[in-house]
Amino acid sequence: MNLCSWNCRGLGATDSPKVPYIGSVVRSLGLDVLFLMETMLPVHIVSQKLSAFSFAGSCGVDALRMSGGLFLGWFHDVSLVPLLVSSNFVLCKYLKVVNEISYLLFVYGAPHVADRGLVWEEIFKILTEYPKVVLVGDFNQVEFLDDKIGGSPHISQRLQFMQWRLDQELQPIQFSGPPFTWTNGHHDNSVTF
């Protein structure tokens, strides 16, 4: 199964190159599932913008003002049934069980440090109730200094997240693509990737 998970940081601008870029990724990688975070739009608008992709199914969460927003779309070769949808995750049952993966949990971690532990606790509850889950997405938490370029060497809640991940026995899965797709938007010497 080919999945793409991308914190797109907004799909709102009409002249944005993001929708054509998504199209090229869908075609070139033969995607089965597309998960977008921080759409900053209502789900129905995202669905309209991506209507050319002919998803077999989709779901998501509307943005609150100019923050958040999730969109999950899947193509005909994949059978997903959304079970739980919130502002931080979408849990789906995977109907074509391969390699004993029964569920997919698409995660968008809390952008504010103070809220991250609450999201981790919710994920813990899901992992306890649903066996054989693959987590895909962005925890909004850096674990290692080489996971970023620039910024402070102090990474808030890094050790807590690492311990939580170990406690849950979560293993990183291999990905392909550019390792740094986010920037803090600064154009001076304080830029962080």
Short description:
InterPro entries: Endo/exonu/phosph_ase_sf (IPR036691). The chain is of the alpha/beta class.
Summarize the structure in words.
- It is a single chain.
- The chain has 193 residues and is α/β, with parallel strands linked by helices.
- It has one domain (3-167): Endonuclease/exonuclease/phosphatase (Deoxyribonuclease I, Chain A), CATH 3.60.10.10.
- Helices cover 24% and strands 26% of the residues.
- It has helices at 18-29, 43-49, 113-129, 158-167, and strands spanning 3-7, 33-37, 57-61, 70-74, 80-85, 89-98, 101-108, 133-138.
- It has a four-stranded mixed β-sheet with strand order 1-2-4-3, covered by helices on one side. It has a four-stranded mixed β-sheet with strand order 5-6-7-8, with no helix packed on it.
- Strand 3 and strand 4 (70-74) form a beta hairpin.
- The chain is globular and about 45 Å long.
- The two termini are 28 Å apart.
- The mean pLDDT is 86.
What amount of the residues lies in strands?
25-35%
Residue stretches low in confidence (pLDDT < 50, at least 5 long) are: none
Total of DSSP H or I helical runs spanning 4+ residues: 4
The neighbouring-strand order within the major sheet is 1-2-4-3
Q: What is the H level of CATH, i.e. the homologous superfamily?
A: Endonuclease/exonuclease/phosphatase
Q: Write down the overall geometry.
A: globular
- Separation of the first and last Cα atoms: 28 Å
CATH architecture annotation name: 4-Layer Sandwich
Task: Bin the helical content.
Answer: 10-25%
Spell out the helices and strands N to C: EHEHEEEEEHEH
Structural class: alpha/beta
Mean pLDDT level: 86
Work out the radius of gyration.
Answer: 17 Å
Say how many strands there are: 8
- Using the coordinates above, name the CATH class: Alpha Beta
Characterize the main sheet: 4 strands, mixed
CATH fold name, please? Deoxyribonuclease I, Chain A
